[in-house]
Design a protein that fits this description.
The protein is an alpha/beta fold. The chain has 9 helices and 11 strands. The longest helix has 25 residues.
Amino acid sequence: MTTSPDNLVLSHRDGGLMWLTLNRADKANAMTVAMVEGLTTHIVQAGTDPTVQAILLTGAGERVFCAGVDVREQPADGDMARQRERRSHALAALQDAVLDTPKPVLVVLNGMASGGGAMIALLADACVAVDTAEVALAEIDIGIATFSGASIVEAVCGLAHARDLVQSGRRMPAPEARHIGLVRAVAPRAELVSAATALATLLGSKKPTVFADNKRWINRRVKAALAEARQEHARHRAHSAQQASPA
């Protein structure tokens, strides 16, 4: 077992599998900017390690996989506008790491996945969920647009489901998410690790170069959609900052 300097991202090896765990259960595993950056580094490094066959991401505890980025994190410089920009860039880099890393990346939902946590789960090569897990893109309920979240859901399973999840903000139970293709497999808690391990081992057994080529091609449209969504996020931030500026 190895840890990040603040112990908020744990990593351990199980043969050819690299497990990464968000270790902030008391805060719903909401990710600080440093956590997002640390997780990205772990994924990129594992992706270049020839002894790693697959990467699995999960969360500490039994309630929440990840509640997304920590929007309440206070920056050292006190500049909240700059903090929002840092947070956005860090999350984009993490999304790119999941999409671009040539190895299989699996998300193991030990509980609720919302916001940025749900986006990472949906971008992974596969998602295995405990049967009590839920998936939500509830930004609308706190007054925030989610262009990236909408683009991801639309690319993964279609416009109707994007409208449903994004515009309602509802929590989708894992069995329903499996039915529409957002989740690959659902398992009881006692069988979650073994189910995830079996799928990771299967995907990791494929010829690495072929898996990587397929992954790059499969992900090309979601990457294009994300690029467009990020441009819209940037325009939205700039407009909001302009509206907030004194006349």
